[in-house]
Amino acid sequence: MKNIFLLILVFALAFVSCDQENMGAIYEPGNVYVAFSSPVVPENILSAEGNFSVNVQIVRSVATMPTTAEVVLEMNDDIEGVFALESNTVTFGDGEEIAYVKIIPIVAPSFIDPTKSYVFNLTLIGDNVSEFFGETTYKASFKYTPIGIGNFNSEFFGEAWSVELEKLEVGSLVLYKAKDLYDTGYSITIVIDGDNISVADQAAWYYDDEYGEVYISGSGTINGKELTLSLTHYIPNVHSWDPATEVLTLP
Fold first, then answer.
1. Which domains does the chain have, with CATH numbers?
2. What is the pLDDT of residues 162-180, one digit of tens each?
3. Of 204, 207, 196, which is closest to residue 232 (Cα–Cα)?
């Protein structure tokens, strides 16, 4: 038994020694590397005060010399032609441990879709990049303001209920977000441009495990605080119900 215990101890010490050597090679204090400060930053706000831009934080391990790093922004359908890096190179001055690369709009603010949540995937390139923190994802969207409780009268479901509402104004557009309007976890965005109302295709409620989500789309008119909407409920490529008149009364 004593010999078995000693054998186990030898193996354990050998494993720890090996692991420390590997960690030392990665985290050796003398190694100079740059890295994103976080792998995911989910709640960035696009606002006029911030010029609808997003600042991405980059850090480095040693601050005694000037250092540069190259950054690549991966395009996707939502951001291509709308956002870009102000510069794909970030520079640390002597003594600086933190630097920023900025994602900026390359279109006028009116061409930034306020109904979307934008996803920015970034990668650091170069020999001085951290092995573990060379990629990050930033998410950004417009910020809605809670305005209280409204009333929703649904012809489709044949009943009425109260709904929590949020509001956003961007240029000439006024947007309302009806929280959990038809189903928990499904908030509906309504866009008003002058006297016209539009409800873009969006998931609205869950039908069942076989058919999944039901979507809505439509248009409407506004009269004071009353929004009269003609909405079509449909399951993509499966079934579409007749348009229903749904009335939302603002608080």
1. 34-142 (2.60.40.2030), 145-249 (2.40.128)
2. 999 999 998 889 999 999 9
3. 204
